[in-house]
Amino acid sequence: MRRAITALAAVAIAGAGVLTAASPGTAASSHPKPTVVLVHGAFEDASAWAPVTRRLLAEHYPVIAPAVPLRGIAADVASLQGVLDAVEGPKILVGHSYGGLLISELAGRTADVRALVYAAAFIPEAGETAGQLNAQFPGSLIGPSTTHAVGPELFVNTASYPALFAAGLPALDTAVAAAGQRPILAAAFDEKIAATAPAGIRKYAVVATRDQAIPPAAERFEARRANAVITEADSPHAIASAAPGAVVDVIHRATR
After folding, report:
1. Which of 52, 117, 159, 243 is found 20 to 30 A from 207 (Cα to Cα)?
2. Which whole-number Å values give the CA distances from 193 to 29, 100, 121, 171, 220, in the listed order?
3. What is the pLDDT of residues 18-64, one digit of tens each?
């Protein structure tokens, strides 16, 4: 009897292993998962992606979240190009905010980019700037009353950070993010992007409906113009922290 029970338990464990392997987002798959490249925006670093990174790693996706120098579009694209060139195989590029400008230009210069995901991000066309795109629709709080310059670099005022980026998120988490923000060269917002993302690469956009850094109307307009598949999330600008599940769901769609 004991041997029979042991045998049945072994069969059950083996069966559970098969079910787990066949489920979406687990380690075993007949097709290797693409590498997901998470590109952060201005006033933050790669840790802003942490809730999304954790979920993707738990599903056995290869993930890299490189540090963006925030020195301007041309300089940042050149820096990230070296990172991407070292990644073999298919890639999904995911950009947040200013990071959307960068993945748009990188898409046409990088091998094996299968899809682009814009998470509360700019989706530019050649010759446009972030400042120009953000001024097309009302609703952005970014301006001289919410930011300050230290030499050529721009910071968000600590008191303005919650409203701009993280309304509704825990106050302590928001304070930590504000304290550790990374400045961007102010000139980056007036630098023109050199190339539109290729039309042949699939595009997905997650619109943050409570965004007060990039107006949601701007995110929708740019997504429609780019023929991106649009998903809306009840989120402030810090979408990776406020709605990581929505971002990961769209990444799943992009990988398929």
Report:
1. 159
2. 38, 11, 14, 35, 19
3. 222 223 333 334 568 999 999 999 999 999 999 999 999 999 999 99
Under a CB-based contact definition with an 8 Å cutoff, are residues 122 and 208 in contact? no
pTM for the complete prediction? 0.87
The DSSP result for 79-96, as a single string, is HHHHHHHT--S-EEEEEE
Q: Which residue carries 């504000």 as its tokens?
A: 178
Query: Residue 76 has which token pair?
Result: 């940042």
Written as six digits, the tokens of 2 are: 């004991």
**Residues contacting residue 6 through CB under 8 Å, at least 6 positions apart:** none
Cα(123)–Cα(95) distance, integer angstroms: 9
Q: What letter does residue 141 receive in the DSSP assignment?
A: -
Q: Token pair for residue 87? A: 């990644």
Query: Is 74 buried (19+), middle (13-18) or exposed (0-12) by CB count in 10 A?
Result: middle
